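Example (one chain per record):
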Amino acid sequence: MTIFNQFRKSRILNKSPSKDNIDSDEQFILGVKSEFGYGVAEDFQQAVNWYTKSSKQGNIKAQAYLAWLYAEGKGVERDYEKSLFWYNKAANQGDINAKSEVFRITNLMNKS
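Predicted structure:
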């Protein structure tokens, strides 16, 4: 069973959601479940997919989680520029941890 099908079965309010009509918070939750293997097999690529969808809608948590995956090369090729892009998005919305990660990633990029 895919994570989306499992999520769909667990939803009470909307009995037939499609992948296109779930909101950014729900997409973020699917990303967390995929990343950490909550109820499904751990799948970093699927986590990147869900976090990206959620991040593009402005979800601050998804932006920070996606940035971390890019920084660590989990589910994607390590890419400090993309990591910095998403950390900056989260930091600009007030995520304090993302602000410190912007500094850390910038230092890593300068050392390369």
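Caption: The helical segments are 3-10, 24-36, 44-56, 60-72, 80-92, 96-111.
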